[in-house]
Amino acid sequence: MGVIKDSFTKIREQCKELILTDKQIEEIMRRVIKEINRGLSKETHAEADVKCFITYVQDLPNGKEKGKFLALDLGGTNFRVLLIHLKDENDFEMLSKIYAIPQSIMLGSGTQLFDHIAECLANFMKEHSVYEERLPLGFTFSFPLTQLGLTKGILARWTKGFNCSGVVGEDVVQLLKDAIARRGDVNIAVMAILNDSTGTLMSCAHSNRDCKIGVIIGTGSNACYVERVENCDLFDGPKSGPNIKQHVMINTEWGAFGDDGALDFVRTEYDREIDQHSINPGRQLQEKMISGMYMGELARLAIVRFTKAGLLFGGVGSDILFKRGQFFTKYVSEIESDKPGTYYNCREVLEELGLEHATDEDCANVRYICECVSSRAAHLVSAGIAALINKMDEPSVTVGVDGSVYRFHPKFHDLMVQKIRQFVKPHISFDLMLSEDGSGRGAALVAAVACREAQ
């Protein structure tokens, strides 16, 4: 019993570095706001990590948007094409199809990528008998963009495993238009380019007018929020006067928070190892502490460390456990879904990893490690959201949230609500709302609002 107790105590002791104290969260909030203000300011934008790109989306849906719209959602290893028919406020039809992007295209040329997308768009329009129609399209492009207008966005850098040549520094809307023109067979009007966090906000705002923040916690992590135009130095357009809109959505690109060392005081050896072995060392450091692309690997690194120290599995690991990337983020959610004191999912996961010899104590320890990693992620996101809510200082704010980690992790929502409540000013009420398909329906709504404004 002494050894079991000892391993249990030692693992908890060594996992303390994965637990954020309230004091640390307050400091993170302070640093997030400082960095957001640097991104908004003309003087400091160039060197700011949190770029706070202006989206030029200034109108929220009002429920009167009608018609057929296409949406293109590119943000990971798959992309989706959607056809959305808005009928009235709560009545819409949505058809969609997922297309794969082969690794060869993810690492090939930009021309190959956009030709592939244009071909899939044309095939989709044929399948759904809208091949002959002229349709407005909203383009969700979930990579860091410098937007120069609603339909002009320059790729700042690739993330999430993409590295297509000839795209960084180029207008991706133009690249898409060029690919469509090369085909010459479909008639599509690209009405807007947006980020998935903006789409999430728009999708929620369609049914909830209080929605002022959109957050993604999936393969990546990002947030956008509604800011006063007067606070946006880089906004290209009139900022005051009759009929001038007072607000604009800001795409923070907060995944890059900490790239200047602002998170070093809470980063661990696991975070440093993940960063060293990533495709973009030194970049997107907050994202690497939060998102689904890294959460499973963070847990694996801790499990490996404790196994090698003889504190787990009797010091005997497995080839799969010791292989990078083999402890998937979905395992974290599955393990934490077990009822207290039961280890059904945990045993199933450990068996898949070749760890059939795990004891109940091992299962309890593995679960604890997973809880530390996922709670830290939830608390980091909550620090950012609470900081934004306090900055906006509206009496009531709805936060639209999407992404696989938020959707599928059994405790993420509750951990966030609890922590945000703790740090939001007492007079502000807030709620978190699961976005129904922000990057799809949200993109169509941005296109629909753009069409509405153009009339």
Describe the structure.
- By secondary structure, the chain is an alpha/beta fold.
- It folds into two domains: 1-52 and 207-435, Hexokinase, domain 1, CATH 3.40.367.20; 56-194, ATPase, nucleotide binding domain (Nucleotidyltransferase, domain 5), CATH 3.30.420.
- The protein has helices at residues 2-14, 22-40, 103-106, 110-127, 172-183, 196-207, 269-276, 287-290, 295-308, 329-337, 344-352, 360-392, 404-408, 412-423, 438-454; strands at residues 53-54, 67-74, 78-88, 91-100, 134-141, 145-149, 152-155, 187-194, 211-217, 221-228, 247-251, 396-402, 429-434.
- Strands 1-11-10-9-12-13 form a six-stranded mixed β-sheet, with helices on both faces. Strands 4-3-2-5-8 form a five-stranded mixed β-sheet. A two-stranded antiparallel ribbon has the order 6-7.
- Helix 6 (196-207) packs across helix 15.
- The longest helix is centred in the C-terminal third of the chain and has 33 residues, at 360-392.
- It starts with a helix and ends with a helix.
- 48% of the residues are buried.
Furnish the topology, listing elements before pairings.
Layout: H1 2-14, H2 22-40, E1 53-54, E2 67-74, E3 78-88, E4 91-100, H3 103-106, H4 110-127, E5 134-141, E6 145-149, E7 152-155, H5 172-183, E8 187-194, H6 196-207, E9 211-217, E10 221-228, E11 247-251, H7 269-276, H8 287-290, H9 295-308, H10 329-337, H11 344-352, H12 360-392, E12 396-402, H13 404-408, H14 412-423, E13 429-434, H15 438-454
Parallel strand pairs: 2-5, 5-8, 9-12, 12-13
Antiparallel strand pairs: 1-11, 2-3, 3-4, 6-7, 9-10, 10-11
Helix pairs in contact: 1-12, 2-12, 4-5, 6-15, 7-9, 9-10, 9-12, 10-11, 10-12, 12-14
Domain Hexokinase C-terminal: 212-449
Family: Belongs to the hexokinase family.
Keywords: ATP-binding, Glycolysis, Kinase, Nucleotide-binding, Transferase
